[in-house]
Amino acid sequence: MRDSGEVDRRTDPDQAATAVLTALAGGVAILRATDDIGYLDVALSDALTTLRTRRPA
Fold this sequence. Notes:
It is a single chain. Helix content is 67%, strand content 0%. It has 2 helices and no strands. The longest helix has 22 residues, at 13-34.
């Protein structure tokens, strides 16, 4: 995503991966507890949207 310009080149890939994996883990935990995939969908969608729009200072 950095190479294609979707994400600012200054974005820390380790930090971004941690954020996406955390959203995934949380979304899956709630999915398993509620049997509603909507939580996982929102978690991942928001994580990726934030990654694409975040611009480091």
